[in-house]
Amino acid sequence: DAMVIQNPRYQVTQFGKPVTLSCSQTLNHNVMYWYQQKSSQAPKLLFHYYDKDFNNEADTPDNFQSRRPNTSFCFLDIRSPGLGDAAMYLCATSRDVRLAGPPAGEQYFGPGTRLTVT
Amino acid sequence: GESVGLHLPTLSVQEGDNSIINCAYSNSASDYFIWYKQESGKGPQFIIDIRSNMDKRQGQRVTVLLNKTVKHLSLQIAATQPGDSAVYFCAEKTWGSNFGNEKLTFGTGTRLTIIP
Fold first, then answer.
1. Residue B83: Cβ within 10 Å count
2. Could you give the CA distance from residue A38 to residue A96 in angstroms, rounded to a whole number?
3. pLDDT, tens digit, for every residue of A44-56?
4. Does A39 touch chain B (CB under 8 A)?
5. What share of chain B is helix, strand, coil (3-state, %, to 5)?
6. Which of A70, A106, B41, B77 lies 20 to 30 Å from B111, alpha-carbon distance?
7. CB of B65 within 8 A of CB of B73?
8. How far is A40 from chain B (nearest CA, A)?
9. Contact flag B43-A111 (C-beta cutoff 8 Å)
10. Is A83 helix (H, G, I), strand (E, B) or coil?
């Protein structure tokens, strides 16, 4: 059973045309993350939500935004995609480590959305 | 800044042999590491983790070794199978002051290919 679901799996957008990627989870985890993974590179954290609290990484471009309307869903908005934004975008979730104490909080990753910018 | 890196980008191993994937880290205060497996077209999958108060941890066919003196960890996969072909990442997990700001910093990745 899918626990972290990402739609669509493949997305093609035009240069400068806003695009939204979606992530949903059935784990009821309170933390959700978005990573960018370029070809043959490691995933790089863009930002994450701890419940409704948004935590942006210092080097994440302003072009990337996120929304989390409820526990289950989280969206990644790219306002004006450039060619350099073509990548795999991974969503991940984890539960509050304070419930189980560190080092709990294993992150569960979705299958990713591969974004192509033309 | 802190970094987690891998020694080798690719590794080819004969099916049935053991494989060892290495990872170096730079932050001596790091205390929690995870190995992930990423198959083509999929997200990373948790394999095994280790805390800094341990130097070895075993799972099913996998063993992680941690050498804090030289800031090095390794993933050993015993009796490799075709399904082990994937990219393997080591990652360091850190937490903010409220434990909510959990962050994974991934290493470069090693592509493991199993030769039939």
1. 9
2. 28
3. 999 999 889 999 9
4. no
5. 5, 55, 45
6. A106
7. yes
8. 8
9. yes
10. helix
Alpha carbon B113 to its chain's center: 16
Exposure letters B41-74 (e unless 16+ CB within 10 A, then b): eebbeebbbbeeeeeeeeeeebbbbbeeeeeebb
pLDDT in tens, B3-30: 565 455 899 999 999 999 999 988 888 8
A97 three-state secondary structure: helix
Q: Which residues of chain A neighbour B109 with C-beta distances below 8 Å?
A: 40-42
Is the minimum CB–CB distance between B107 and chain A shorter than 8 Å? yes
Strand partners, B50: B33
Q: CA dihedral in degrees (A95, B27, B46, A114; nearest 10)?
A: 90
Q: Does A43 touch chain B (CB under 8 A)?
A: yes
Q: Which structure tokens are listed for A58?
A: 């210092």
Average pLDDT, chain A: 91
DSSP structure class, residue A85: G
